[in-house]
Automatic annotation (TrEMBL):
The gene is flgI. GO terms for molecular function: structural molecule activity. It holds the Pfam family FlgI. GO terms for cellular component: bacterial-type flagellum basal body, distal rod, P ring; outer membrane-bounded periplasmic space. This is Flagellar P-ring protein.
Amino acid sequence: MAAFTRILALVLLLPCLAWAAPVRIKDLATVDGVRGNDLLGYGLVIGLNGTGDSLRNTPYTEEMLGSLLERLGVNVTGESFRPKNVAAVMVTGTLPPFAHAGGQIDVTVSAIGDAKSLLGGTLIMTPLNAADGEVYAVAQGSIIAGGVSAEGEAASVVQGVPTSGHIPSGARVEREVDFDFSQMSSFRLALRSADFTTAARIEKAINDDLGDGVATLLDATTISIDSTSLGTVNPARLVGRIENISVEPESRARVVVDHRSGTIVMGEEVRISRVAVSQGNLTLRVRETPMVSQPNPFSPGETVVVPRTDAEITQEPGIGFAEVSGESSLSDVVAGLNALGVRPRELIDILKAVHAAGALHAEFIVN
């Protein structure tokens, strides 16, 4: 219990340490519109060691392989071929902002048929489309699969996910997104977590550094930046200067609970009103121990099973009524909860009950 108390206190105090120092704007916000674009393609992986799709169950793999061979001048019309070293896959990737033609991006390859493994396979030329239907990149290369599988006549073993793999720098950018950032005289910053106080502090910090009127607060997540008052300025250099300005963000009072692992994380602003807590466990045990009764040898009668049930109810002493006083600091709240002397999952139940009673002044999130 003492070890858990120390670990719990450390976990609860981590947010305090994290928010004690100012944070750069680049870690709190992004430039609105500067984002990546998702890409998707459908292709074939070849060169597998007998772990590909069974073409009887995946006819689309056979159709695509036949079309590919036809384009390469190989006539397979009417032919029956059942290779086991080919698999149909979906290829996904992200076109980063400001990507230029000729650049390379990473892609992920995932089997969509009944292939057993993509280990050792090679993805052949696969166009990658964006949401507008245009081809922005072409993927090809050897797959790095992180899993492995093996099987015999009566057993099989699989470690990791052998039906999914990765190709570093496996796609080459063929089309650029039409976006000229150098011609923008104004842009917006978008906060990753909405908060009016943090947004107002960012506005003030930018205006203090660059001059009044450069930054304008629009809402809890958006700050507009207008560079016209600064004269002729390179927007990229301006963003580089703004994102390194430090501000002290404001965090919302929040308690996050993971009931599966028993983890509890509290924010610095969490407060608990004065409340009394009583906690104990009631355990009911019912055991069946039937007995067999049978007559003596060569005597009349028959064997019967006589039921025998033992029922027991036990109640742990619990903590009785313990008072958690409303204090002004997180360390006092932690000390009050630890003073109850309960186990992690019981502490989670107590926090849920305190929240239901209206004494926990924080957002309560259960995962």
